[in-house]
Amino acid sequence: MDATPTTRPRTRRLVAVSAVAVGLCVAGTGVATAAAPTSALSRSVTEILQSAGVDWSTMPDGYTPEQYQAFWGAGYSAENVEELGALWNLDATDAKARAGQLILDGQQVPVTPSGGETAPTVEITAEQLDAFFGAGYTGEDVDALAALWQTEFSETKARAGQMILDGQTPPVAPSGTPATS
Prior knowledge:
Largest sheet: none
Number of helices: 8
Radius of gyration: 21 Å
Structural class: mainly alpha
Strand content: under 5%
């Protein structure tokens, strides 16, 4: 008997499973770095990809880590983000980027920092992130929880993910489909 016909389906299956596994790892890393764009993981992933010649940033387009640090380091809060967004008619990311750049340029931001939280210090763990999204939570759910708790998105995901890991139920039900084990 010829072993080739039996080997080919196994080889194809192994290649397919490997491709899916690599894709899931890349996607998981992308989600983790997006959750905490200034975390050590995000910086490491960015450095590795950029050293390989890949144009990659964990920050949203038009928003640099320097702007992020300048904005939060100046003592601005989530409420200030909303106020600036309304004033400039910008979304939250663009408002933070613009204000951060003004600070870096030594210019005055038209809203006084409320003295709320400084740079978000909560770094979400992969376990918390997996629990959060594995339970079926979506971006809209993050918005709802963040509004309820008055927290930044990273802190919101970390807090809800930890609640799930601790066997508690976050106050907003997930609107997505939970992942199966």
